Amino acid sequence: MIDTACGFAAATVVGQVLAAQCSVNFLSPAVGDEFVARAAVVKAGKRQVFTTAELCAVRDGVSKLVATGTTLLAIPS
Fold it and tell me: Of the residues 8, 12, 28, 31, which has the maximum number of CB atoms within 10 A of its CB?
């Protein structure tokens, strides 16, 4: 979900992108009724885009951060 959220965030800024690197940090077990991933573009250049994301598990209406991640996405020529 982190990779997908970062890809969509980058695509809204620069268009089509390809994943070059993805790093995920697991903070706690992902137990929940639903999951929410939020991503943002940190920097968009001419050839690549750097993004970050957070993944939250929602259980009984309470949201808990379970993972964070970063991606480096390439802009195809």
Answer: 8
Cα gap 23→25, rounded to integer Å: 7
Element (H, E) at 23: strand 18-26
Length of the chain: 77
For the full predicted model, state whether its pTM sits above 0.90. yes
Separation in Å, CA 77 to CA 13, 14, 51, 69: 16, 12, 20, 26
Amino acid identity, position 23: S
Among all chains, which residue has been given the structure tokens 């268009």? 15
Cα gap 4→77, rounded to integer Å: 21
d(CA 77, CA 62) in angstroms, rounded, equals 43
Count other C-beta atoms under 10 Å from residue 57's C-beta: 19
Q: What is the pLDDT of residue 77?
A: 85
